[in-house]
Design goal:
The strands form three sheets. The chain has a six-stranded mixed beta sheet with strand order 6-7-8-3-9-10, with helices on both faces. The longest helix is centred in the middle third of the chain and has 12 residues. Helix content is 32%, strand content 20%. 35% of the residues are buried. It is of the alpha/beta class and 226 residues long. A hairpin with a 2-residue loop joins strand 9 and strand 10. The protein starts with a strand and ends with a helix.
């Protein structure tokens, strides 16, 4: 509500208010410099807001550090991939699962029937990366790396995921795969998508906010925005 973020004299986000319901699929659109990623950074705590209030399921999280927001069920992906490129796909997902689980600092190796091992296998299937599970991330296509990022964001039963331009740099075939993946997410899970590709955004979102120069220009359904 009324969120702002300034960097010196620059007001990157200026009085933005929006509400995402539980289970809602939401898109934030706008040109480069509209303030979309900065808005995401205020929600996740990477850049706490200079003004306004952020509530997550009714709780004021405006001043919470990022790791506390993650524990409450908030996740995000970034424009640039943040993956362990020398590790396998399976190991990246396993680390994400362990990072969101209790006992994550245990030195005991998880066996085949361990909850974290089973959760990793489930994520591999969900993001359609079973066939490359044991390949190093560095050998994956850009589209597969984006799928892996989504899989890592899904670890630990998140309540809301923020996707920052997941279709950037994808081929037409990879974009179709991305749309299918986003549409397959559980109905109870909310997400907010930043995307320059209007076709993708309007195909997966139920509601849209358009930003311009750090402010909300318009809210509406995809049909209303088109």
């Amino acid at each position: 509500k009324s969120v702002g973020r300034s960097f010196g004299a620059l007001r990157a986000v200026d009085g933005v208010s929006l509400s995402v319901r539980a289970g809602q699929k939401y898109a934030v659109l706008g040109s480069n410099g509209a303030g979309k990623t900065t808005l995401f950074n205020t929600i996740t705590g990477d850049f706490p807001p200079s003004a306004g209030v952020i509530r997550f399921f009714g709780e004021d999280i405006t001043l919470l550090p990022p790791h506390e927001r993650i524990r409450k069920g908030l996740r995000r992906t970034y424009q640039s991939s943040l993956l362990f490129r020398e590790l396998s796909v399976r190991d990246n997902l396993f680390l994400a699962v362990r990072g969101s689980a209790g006992g994550r600092y245990s030195f005991l190796r998880a066996g085949r029937t361990h909850a974290s091992t089973l959760a990793t296998a489930d994520l591999l299937a969900r993001v359609r990366l079973d066939s490359v599970a044991d390949q190093p991330v560095a050998t994956l296509s850009h589209g597969q790396q984006r799928q892996l990022e989504i899989g890592m964001a899904l670890a630990g039963a998140p309540r809301l995921i923020l996707f920052d331009e997941p279709a950037a740099g994808l081929s037409p075939a990879e974009r179709r795969e991305l749309v299918a993946l986003l549409r397959s997410l559980p109905s109870h899970m909310s997400f907010v998508l930043i995307e320059h590709d209007l076709d993708i955004a309007l195909r997966v979102a139920e509601y849209v906010t358009v930003m311009h120069n750090g402010r909300v220009l318009r809210h509406g359904t995809p049909d209303e925005i088109e």
